[in-house]
Fold this sequence. Notes:
Chain A is an alpha+beta fold and 264 residues long. In chain A, 33% of the residues lie in helices and 25% in strands.
Amino acid sequence: MYETNYHRASSVADAVRLKGASEESKYVSGGMTLIPTMKQRLAAPTDLVDLRHVAEMKGITVSGGSVRIGAATTHAEVAQSSDIKAACPALAHLASLIGDPHVRHMGTIGGSIANNDPAADYPSAMLALGATIVTDRREIAADDFFTGLFETALADDEIVVAVTFRPPERAGYCKFPNPASRYAMTGVFVTRGADGVRVGVTGAGADGVFRHAAMEAALAGNFSPQALAGVTTDPSDLLSDIHGSAEYRANLVAVMARRAVAAA
Amino acid sequence: MGVEGIGARVARKEDKRFLTGKGRYTDDMVVPGMKYAAFVRSPHAHAKIRGIDSSAAEGMPGVIGVLNGQQMLDDGIGNLICGWMIHSKDGSPMKMGAWRPLAHETVRYVGDAVAVVVADSVGEARDAAEAVVVDYEELPAVTDAATALRGGQPQLHPEAGGNLIYDWAIGTAEAETDAAIAAAAHVTEMTIVNNRLAPNPMEPRAALGIYDVGEDHYTCYTTSQNPHVARLVMSAFYNVAPENKLRVIAPDVGGGFGSKIFIYPEEIVCLWASRRTGVPVKWTSDRTEAFLTDAHGRDHLSTVKMAFDGDNRITALKVDTIANFGAYMSLFSSAVPTYLYATLLSGQYAIPAIHANVRAVYTNTAPVDAYRGAGRPEATYLLERTIETAARELGVSPAELRRKNFIRSFPHQTPVIMNYDAGDYEASLEAAMKEADWAGFGARKAQAEGRGMKRGIGMSCYIEACGIAPSAAVGSLGAGVGLWESAEVRVNAVGTIEVLTGSHSHGQGHETTFAQLVADRFGVPIDSVSIVHGDTDKVQMGMGTYGSRSGAVGMSAIVKALDKVEAKAKKIAAHLMEADESDIVIENGEAKVAGTDKTVPWFQVALSAYTAHNLPAGMEPGLKEGAFYDPSNFTFPAGCYICEVEIDPETGKTEIVQFVAADDFGNIINPMIVEGQVHGGIAQGIGQALLEGVHYDPQTGQLLTASYMDYAMPRADDLPSFKVSHQNTPCPNNPLGIKGCGEAGAIGSPPALMNAITDAIGNNDLTMPATPQKVWAAAHAAQ
Lengths: 264, 783
């Protein structure tokens, strides 16, 4: 790891100020991607601004028919939250599948979606829940937030403060983990709610997480696994690597989607 | 057996320090003035070095020195060597290219070391290593062995034309084997790939080189399975220092699996750099360096023909194997696909004609050498996949086909050198089939089908050769060293006992098992017995631990030394009690005159030896004896493994629902430790069959599996609870009747698992690792 300066932000405004004080600075939350990358000398921020101790970014609240999860909330907190289990058990289930216990107690939802790893679990849920990403300066619809592999709509110094969503009537998540990393080789999050059916797919897309329009259409009239029979995914839009070809991932998208609907 | 003697399930003495974080590993060692090394490594798979500019690095904070391969050459440091000479069929010696500890002309794989930085901290050393500018002229690379043999491919070493190191054969004459195959009623033909593995011991490699200018003496702390061989090789071949000026210490070592047998560039460089810079130099590998530079295992491509007569008896076996050796010949690399592989191709079967041909090949990849099982897993995988396939082709039960061909009388001379001394293959087969409820499989398969799952069952009957072997025999086959072991038993004046052994424990539990031998012999508590190993200043000489040799060879040496101690102790006790020596028995911590109530406590016997006030006339004081033990043959553990799987046909995911291991290791000293060895071995075998595989980009030679993000190691939840049992035909050729157990699990399990998966999906065309993607594709192709 290259030498770096650590700063603990006390508020969102403090974090923005600290980050702005240095050109090569980065926000760090759980650090589950950034720290290993720095240890491998593949990232070299001169300054790290820690967001995990900002009070306004923490906690889970459900009120007025809306769920708000602070960005600094860990995966373990989401997985164990009785509020989340009541409002959207599929999301608690998703959080329980991320990494291992160490990762779940360090990694945060804000860090995960801001990093937008194409194999991360949360982005699929954000798309399928039609979530809103609340930053220090605006609100961004999930549909507009994830813009490509490790790319988001965030400005360089913009901070995800929270995510909000309306609990769906039904939701399910099914993930096929990569045998090595246990990231999602394919993960599908399905919801049915006031805005209809939404299907978010992670781990498989060549451009990162995506909504599966054909599946959404098929499920709109019949929210059952059988409705997905015959719905295919074009492999040319999917990732291919040493762990899984695009054709294999296309199959996994179909299988995981069926199982997610069955679980919803 | 007593509660701490031979056969007792004694909890491991060493686990307290390991489990509480009190183990002392090479990286824990701190000496005054110690500095840190970082290596500059090639980012290219194949390139000429046009120049190295260290000027910027030398001026960086904390930097003490930047050293390169030309300086090493100038100082007379020798090439790394392969210590086992193999001759090709045409009589020519193997073609070994030069391996410099720091490359100065050509780099041949990604990770090849070209320079080293010594600095005040690890961070400063790494910062400066990045500032060393190496001017490379890139060359085309080849990573696949079969490709490397073809014309027009990149050439790695001028000594080895066509990248061919040797073209070697063993067994029955080829023409005679071909004739038997031509006359056969049935021939099963297969292409068998044995996938390349990264060893991944929990503790990465490390070295601390200390040069003492006052004494002109070197000390090397290193992660070695055989510190004495390390000293011998570094002294005799690398000219680091004469043996009496070089102490090698391998303290606690966190796993080796073969990868820490070999001498690597880094320990030589740390010693040399310590002299060059005047400070102790420590290097510790990180995990990616380990993936890049630890010697890999396996990587064979073979074709096989197994011929049967009309009665389904095997009449001939013909094997052609291409072994990928990587960029350089590592210390034991040449022996692995020859005398540790082709000599086991008879398996558990009476086969009248066997011909095997092996070609060893250079490629632009990390060196390949022994990894848990070393050749024997490759032989077992080839044979057991082939005979299972033959059973399917012949329409007979795989158990029946094996039974019909089992060797049933001993000793048995195979056509490929080995002379099996003892075994009962049917016993292990029967035990495994019973434990696995083989007969009930059909019902379980039908039940699984009802749940949409494909269930399959597969078996594997393995044999291995352990405790290699008579020194004169291995010498005649090309080994550069003898393969005996030494021991010294020191009884202290108060009766506590130290056992010095040339074996090295890096997870095997020697501190417990070896102490059990002593406790058993004299009836003393094992807490009064200490095992000393891993330091060339304490133990005079030894050959180390690999190939499951510490039990059969190392403990046999201890038994010889114990015999001598017991004989002298009996003389002393007889003298003290005025009895006849032949009437003395030593048990329960005292010497007794048989048939009387006369006793002398053990400590009194020891004390008498050291006070020397009242010893038999002419007897030397003291109670300390040494022994060297050279085995008369290999030992031949064998067994039967049965694996049952369920495949999810929609995803290709394999779940192992049952795994049964029935092993014949001969006599067993500590069943709990043996079972632990079997569990670990099976986990590694399942890793090979289901998860692990080293991938290089075939064009660039870049390692694509350089971290756990891409290299899948088995985790606890990938594994079932193993059902382990033991059968016993004692080894007739060593005093304890033991055979060895360290590698069996890794040898027997991959074919059992692959036979089960291919049975489940109805498609035999599947290579390891059987990833979900491959199994899904094969299952669909079969429909």
